[in-house]
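Thread: "does anyone have the structure for this chain?"

Original post by V.I.:
We have the sequence but no experimental structure in hand. Need at least a predicted one for the grant figures.
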Amino acid sequence: MEEPLNIALLCHPTVGGSGILATELGHRLADRGHEIYVISERPPFRLREDRPRIHFCESNLVEFPLFKSPDHTLPLATRIAEVCTNNQIDLIHAHYAIPHTAAAWIAKELIGQAAPPIITTLHGTDIIYLGAMAEYRPLLQHVLEASNLVTCVSENLKKRTEQLFNLDAEIEVVPNFFEPKPPTRSREDIRASLDVGDGVLAIHASNLRSIKRIDLMLDAFKEAVSRCDANLLIMAGAEASRIQPEIKKRSLENHVRIVDDVYEIDNYYAASDFTLYTSEYESFCLGILEGMRHGLPSIAFEVGGIPEVVVNEESGILVPFGDIEALGVAIVRLAGDGDCRKEMGASARARAEKEFSAGVIVDSYMGAYRRVLASESSM
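Reply from O.Q.:
Generated one for you, tokens below.
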């Protein structure tokens, strides 16, 4: 039995891989007997506050006439310090360097010698985009060096981080994980609600940020549906109205369905046939893994850490970034070949269960926690 820890978990509340991973990690750690204090400006998308040992600690934005926009980092730092002091926090696990590790570092300065160690997990855009900006790079360098341990979700992200920053300590790779839940609605019920009948259904789940390149996905899907019978479901974690004109411009209204803020995601994966991703960069792509655990093959651009998740021509099909024609061919291929979907889907599920299960990944994080705490106690 593990000695229980008090862990402060910092993450974004919005729909996105970093917040989802952090939330699910918190749930799993709480199931193991640890007290988890989730600090964010609102409850994260999939956080279950009704579960034992899960505590949500709100950090408020501050509106002030002299500020052009609300300030979050400094109030977050104050809240972290308060939670750590009042609850004897053993360690802080920050998901996303900016603003979370920066706020944790400020909190550590506020607390003083009794401050807990900081573990930073990098998820991608905080490094790839903010790390390239002169306004953030020195701060990122400082807070990463101030972290007791830095992890990232793929070898690709580790390499990109090492190219941007000169860090003395080794970065550990701890991939994402996902554990599916049994569907609460039948495949037939979900498909009837989407009005897709027995046709092939591709699924895409994301926050629809520009990096996801929804425009390229729609271009490829338009090319594909001229040659096959298929539909596309977009599970949108952000306001979907912005992509409605793009769907209409391509005359895809009869082929694309959108659902917003879905909590019971397993129902929709279980009703789908393959996943579709067209990002210009993904450090890992949790949406692909979610599909894999439901036995879905994937079609995606071969970018970032995706080849570490998907084995091309074994658990999915990867094509060069921006190759709309190749992407369309892949869609037509999977849409028209049920045996191929079944074979690739079985391989995808087996790979996900072996490499990216909760048991494997949570054990990795617990090992990291124990090493950091042991190192701190020996100093």
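V.I.: this helps a lot. The domain at 187-355 is CATH 3.40.50.2000 (Rossmann fold).
O.Q.: and The mean pLDDT is 93.
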